[in-house]
């Protein structure tokens, strides 16, 4: 599997479309245990990303991802802006100078992105956040590759693991972000950020398929 800068940009455009389509849904999820702006944040953020990235950026995937991160930080007001922003900036640094990336690069991208989110938000698995979708996706991806599955099969398993992670957030108490103010009352609701992370992973799979 080899992904060009043009393809990475195409994926970002697809993510922007998906965030738009899921704007009301993500905001509804956030409204139940937060302040109801997650859909708007994501849709606004990725619309700005697509506008900001220029043709000359596409030669360097590191550049594309770095610019994506910086745009999310400056255009998204909520907690998710700096968190996803840091994730994409770290991802950009990991593949700086590359015009093509493969599956091993993608694993590295996800790993450094997760590291960035954990560092920035001081969160861990089980806190009912985006981490609960991303961490199991990375594990599933690595396991699938280890078992000899094709790249696409591995990406499919990764997004399925992310979905299970989203489901898992329904049953746990929020320990980070606005939802944590609700304590036990956050149980029964799926986390909005875990859901947007799942949507991104699903879109990556669907676009590469
Ligand atoms: P805000 O909470 O500021 O309104 P958003 O609604 O855009 O921002 O994003 C909320 C999402 O951000 C949550 O659903 C959760 O997944 C994620 N989140 C919040 N705080 C943290 C944190 N410390 N670590 C990781 N993810 C977090
Ligand atoms: Mg919110």
From TrEMBL:
Please give the superkingdom of this protein's source: Bacteria
Molecular functions per Gene Ontology: glycerone kinase activity; phosphoenolpyruvate-glycerone phosphotransferase activity
Q: Where is the DhaL domain?
A: 6-206
Gene Ontology CC annotations of this record: cytosol
UniProt keyword terms in alphabetical order: Glycerol metabolism, Kinase, Transferase
**Function description:** ADP-binding subunit of the dihydroxyacetone kinase, which is responsible for the phosphoenolpyruvate (PEP)-dependent phosphorylation of dihydroxyacetone. DhaL-ADP is converted to DhaL-ATP via a phosphoryl group transfer from DhaM and transmits it to dihydroxyacetone binds to DhaK.
Q: Can you say what this protein is called?
A: phosphoenolpyruvate--glycerone phosphotransferase
Could you tell me which species this protein originates from? Clostridium grantii DSM 8605
Q: What is the lineage of its organism?
A: Bacteria, Bacillati, Bacillota, Clostridia, Eubacteriales
């Amino acid at each position: 599997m080899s992904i060009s800068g043009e393809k990475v940009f195409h994926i970002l455009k697809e993510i922007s479309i998906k965030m738009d389509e899921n704007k009301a849904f993500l905001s509804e999820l956030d409204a139940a245990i937060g302040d109801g702006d997650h859909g708007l944040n994501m849709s606004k953020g990725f619309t700005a990303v697509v506008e900001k990235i220029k043709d000359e950026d596409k030669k360097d995937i590191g550049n594309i991802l770095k610019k994506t991160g910086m745009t999310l930080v400056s255009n998204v007001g909520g907690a998710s802006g700096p968190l996803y922003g840091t994730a994409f900036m770290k991802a950009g640094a990991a593949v700086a100078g590359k015009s093509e990336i493969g599956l091993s690069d993608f694993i590295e991208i996800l790993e450094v992105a997760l590291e960035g989110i954990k560092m920035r938000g001081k969160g861990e698995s089980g806190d009912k956040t985006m981490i609960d979708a991303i961490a199991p996706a990375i594990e599933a991806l690595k396991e699938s590759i280890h078992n000899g599955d094709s790249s696409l099969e591995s990406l499919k398993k990764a997004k399925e693991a992310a979905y299970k992670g989203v489901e898992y957030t329904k049953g746990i108490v929020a320990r980070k972000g606005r939802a944590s103010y609700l304590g036990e009352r956050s149980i029964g609701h799926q986390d909005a950020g875990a859901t947007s992370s799942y949507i991104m992973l699903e879109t990556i799979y669907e676009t590469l398929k």
